[in-house]
Amino acid sequence: EGWAGMRSMSMWTEAMTQARKVKHALFESDLTPDVKLDWVKFSPDEDLGERWQTASDSAWGGMSSCSLEVTGDGLGVFKGAISLELPPPHLETGFLYGSTTKQATKAGMCGFTSKRDALHSNLEHCNALKIKLKGDGRVYLVNLRTEALRQGDLYQTLIKPEAGEWKELLLPFGNFQLTHYGMINVNGVKMNPRTVVSFGVTIQDGKEGPFELQIDSVSAVRDLSLPELEQDC
Fold first, then answer.
1. Phi/psi of residue 114, nearest 5 degrees
2. Is 65 in contact with 110 (CB distance < 8 Å)?
């Protein structure tokens, strides 16, 4: 109850518009206004498996594939190929549905996420993410998970970085929508930055073909030009 399927870009766009209209209240007056935490930074010397994991629709028989790599310059590169091909009719999976007796009805997903508590900064006094990246013109979802969320729940917001250009995007926490396996919670539950335990990115834009997203850094910031933020969980 309280969930609605997000099956089109227009529905996501409407959800983002409504999120921006909400009046919020979070920060105490005595907090410093210039908070910036360097939250995610890749290193060419790190073992990616210690902090990060990837996933794709291959977990339920799909044909999409992806990887997360680090360049010598310390850039995180999320790349792969999206396939919309469904698994054979005889292949049954419960990955999405909590049951081993239902046939997968959709494909075309890749993503990566940090492991729980692998990113240690407390985002309590922040109200946005600032991400420096270079995209390919495709649509991605930026994902945040908090302590209280159940399996399949994420706070998500859309980005569509221009192809081939480095950009620094500001993503207000108030624009992140609570979802459950792609279904948005229409009750407008708001995220509590203090309880964020992981960061990730998903591509599931309904288009086949290769993709590549380069990430230089992710910072958590407090931007006083943004509406103040209500918090739930």
1. -75, 150
2. yes
pLDDT in tens, 88-99: 775 555 444 344
Q: What's the token pair of residue 50? A: 């210690």
Q: What is the pLDDT of residues 169-206, one digit of tens each?
A: 999 999 999 998 888 887 778 899 999 999 999 999 99
From start to end of 74-208, where are the E strands?
76-82, 110-114, 128-134, 140-146, 153-159, 166-172, 177-180, 183-185, 196-203
The dihedral through the CA atoms of 8, 145, 198, 14 has a sign that is positive
Please tell me the distance from the alpha carbon of residue 136 to that of residue 161, in angstroms, as a whole number. Answer: 7
The 10 Å CB-count burial string (b at 16+, else e) for 195-212 is bbbbbbbbbbbeeeeebe
* Best CA proximity match to 219, nearest among 183, 170, 176, 177: 170
Whether this prediction's pTM lies above 0.70 is answered by: yes
